[in-house]
UPF0340 protein D7I46_12770 (Lactococcus allomyrinae), 180 residues
Amino acid sequence: MDLEKLKNETQLIINDVLEKSEIKAGQIFVLGLSSSEVNGGIIGHASSAEIGEVIVGVIHDTLTEKGIYLAVQGCEHLNRALLIEQELAEKKDWDTVSVIPQLHAGGSGQVAAYKRFKHPVEVEHIIAQAGLDIGDTSIGMHVKHVQIPIRPVLRELGGAHVTALKNRPKLIGGERARYK
């Protein structure tokens, strides 16, 4: 795998998704990542620490620069728990759980984020304002209701299908209501 190409394509995707999602500083962005899928394999069967480090590095740096929190979803072996900064868990008063992610229990994204975060902790549930799903990892459960699909500028990263979500307020009030 060409890691420089992967880095450039990840940057293109994250810039596009951030623009389309209109996420703001202080909000939460969730990442689901299957390095196996990026690597051309089947989710959970061809994990790559290098791929995780490249993708998470680009996304974490970009979000940090904008003051946006990153939450990295773990695999089903961790019940889709999320790795976040302790500061965010404390700010939101979220209970933490005890686990240290591994390549095959958490995934390459969580392992990379664990190395990069200042004080990483795991939580079971969050409510993010937007997110990026690389490899069909099903991040929708972590994005605030009502979720709106975003079509990224690139629909594939390596061998992985790429989708994204943002949220919008619920539209209530029936036929007499007006919206922006």
Remarks:
- The radius of gyration is 16 Å.
- Helices lie at 3-21, 35-38, 49-66, 86-92, 108-116.
